[in-house]
Please model this.
Amino acid sequence: MKTDVIKLDAASAGTIDLNDEIFGLEPRKDILHRVVRYQLAKRQAGTHKVKTRRETSYSTKKIYRQKGTGGARHGDRNAPIFRGGGVYKGPTPRSHAHNLTKKFRKLGLKHALSAKVAAGELVILDNADLGTAKTKDLAKAVKNLGWKRTLVIDGAEVNANFALAARNIEGVNVLPTMGANVYDILKSDTLVLTKAGAEALEARLK
Model:
């Protein structure tokens, strides 16, 4: 598919031919949902922890004699039924990650890119090169282009000045091609691919 290419000053920079097998699919929500769940589960800390009966600090002495008190039988105060006692089957540190094949993750990325094209939220930028790392200049260009919550994906490496200028602009995220992922793409209102980024993504997803 032919797509227009622009510069940071909104001037036209010709067109680019995007691969229909990557950018022209019918987006499937079920695939996108599974890949997003995979990403979020993988990055979940899983550091939740409670003290079990053997980790609480009470004495292990039996609190009173077995018979003759008229009360229930008890051992020590570490039992889960007592306040301050150990928690029974509580959460322990673990990984929440689950497996998803590399082939399926690639498919998810294709559908995420296609979803942005279908929604009219894909912009192809000639390049993301800046002469100076001035946030003011980039912020002005972003405002003139009408970009709000924006993800910019560059080639193998992001231009250093562009990355420095963009990091102080709220709502603008910059990633190299290898950092492109389904969750960040779907979360953005505008997906901006440089020509180098688009070519690198096509090479990665073929």
User: Anything to note?
Assistant: The helical segments are 20-23, 29-43, 102-118, 135-145, 160-166, 182-187, 195-205.
